[in-house]
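Retry 2 of 3 after timeout on previous attempt. Resubmitting structure tokens to design endpoint.
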């Protein structure tokens, strides 16, 4: 049987453990897997584009486990009551192909994206960073704010969204978090002013320039999350030229990241090399660093592993018959008898006889 986790199950794991604990745990699993970078099958995700958005499949595997995520990105969805990003995924055993876990990944994507952002910022932002600008206050916003607050010591968030209702929703959701001040700003420039870290997590299927060079200050770390699809960017090219740029998996980021705007030889560093000690993280207090995040399959692999372990420890989720159970695995035909009394009968013909 395959284990199934719904969004409600994931929410119950978060309620049982606390969101800070879950973000920390997930960041730990992601970092562990990034440290094993060479052990994974890696490929740029397969993307199916339409004028409204994109639907993507994101597979990866090590010697023991295989995973994939189905995820979309449709920035106009919120106008018809659907989220911009919806996802689910599977963790399977490599030795048999048996799907072990089928899970929601919509809530989980927000958790794992924030955990990944913090993993990168731990090495790329200044250790004394206390203030973060958060541009784009939609579905991902609170998760980014909480991850940077709990895991990195951010105490003040300067927020801006072109939709004031989104900002008000974020302010309300974070109002009760002790030690986290949320300051609503009137523009991206105002939010970025004096920030140690600038997180951009906007959704617009356009070559947007949310951050422009005059908004940069020495020592800033830019956590660019929303530019993650061909024709969808957030950073002005001169922003990318202002500092060292780190990416998840270069072949995918060249297609989807903010670096899609740059020539093929524009220098980028895959982040795993920082963890491996091959490349330094932040070099000095004045350097500008950029994490050009698009979301990589490995992060979902880690998140699925984390959910599987937490669900087992807490006794959560239910078992579903996604794959039939067999007395004789060659007798697939016998499975039909579970649905109808006589698999050879033709209801259409029986109806016609009446
Ligand atoms: N890198 C990753 O791993 C990763 C993971 C998840 C989502 N994403 C991306 O993050 C983005 C945000 O996702 P979401 O689920 O929060 O979407 P959302 O639609 O819920 O929120 C996006 C917000 O951005 C705001 N916005 C749009 N243009 C803006 C602008 N010019 N200035 C300020 N705000 C602006 C919108 O008003 C909206 O409130 C999407 O582009 C999504 O594809 C990336």
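Retry 2 succeeded. Sequence:
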């Amino acid at each position: 049987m395959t284990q199934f986790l719904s969004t409600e199950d994931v929410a119950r794991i978060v309620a049982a453990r606390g969101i800070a604990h879950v973000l920390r745990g997930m960041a730990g699993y992601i970092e562990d897997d990034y440290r094993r970078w060479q052990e994974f099958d890696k490929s740029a995700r397969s993307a199916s584009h339409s004028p409204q958005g994109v639907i993507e499949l994101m597979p990866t595997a090590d010697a023991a486990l295989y995973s994939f995520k189905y995820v979309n990105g449709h920035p106009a969805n919120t106008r018809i009551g659907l989220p911009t990003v919806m996802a689910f995924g599977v963790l399977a055993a490599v030795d048999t192909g048996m799907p072990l876990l089928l899970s929601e990944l919509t809530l989980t994507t927000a958790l794992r994206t924030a955990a990944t952002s913090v993993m990168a910022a731990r090495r790329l932002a200044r250790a004394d960073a206390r203030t973060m600008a958060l541009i784009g206050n939609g579905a991902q916003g609170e998760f980014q704010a909480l991850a940077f607050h709990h895991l990195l010591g951010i105490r003040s968030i300067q927020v801006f969204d072109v939709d004031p209702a989104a900002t008000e929703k974020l302010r309300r959701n974070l109002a009760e978090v002790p030690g986290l001040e949320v300051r609503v700003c009137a523009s991206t420039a105002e939010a970025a002013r004096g920030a140690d870290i600038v997180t951009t997590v906007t959704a617009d299927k356009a070559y947007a320039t949310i951050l422009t060079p005059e908004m940069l200050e020495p020592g800033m770390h830019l956590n660019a999350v929303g530019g993650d699809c061909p024709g969808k960017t957030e950073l002005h090219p001169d922003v990318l030229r202002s500092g060292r740029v780190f990416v998840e998996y270069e072949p995918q980021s060249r297609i989807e990241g903010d670096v899609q705007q740059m020539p093929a030889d524009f220098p980028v560093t895959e982040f795993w090399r920082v963890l491996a000690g091959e490349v330094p993280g932040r070099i000095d207090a004045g350097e500008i660093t950029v994490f050009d995040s698009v979301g990589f399959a490995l992060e979902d692999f880690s998140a699925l592993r984390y959910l599987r372990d937490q669900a087992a420890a807490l006794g959560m989720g239910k078992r579903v018959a996604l794959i039939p159970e067999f007395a004789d695995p060659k007798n697939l035909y016998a499975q039909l008898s579970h649905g109808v009394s006589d698999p050879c009968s033709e209801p259409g013909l029986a109806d016609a006889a009446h």
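Attempt log closed. The longest helix spans residues 106-124.
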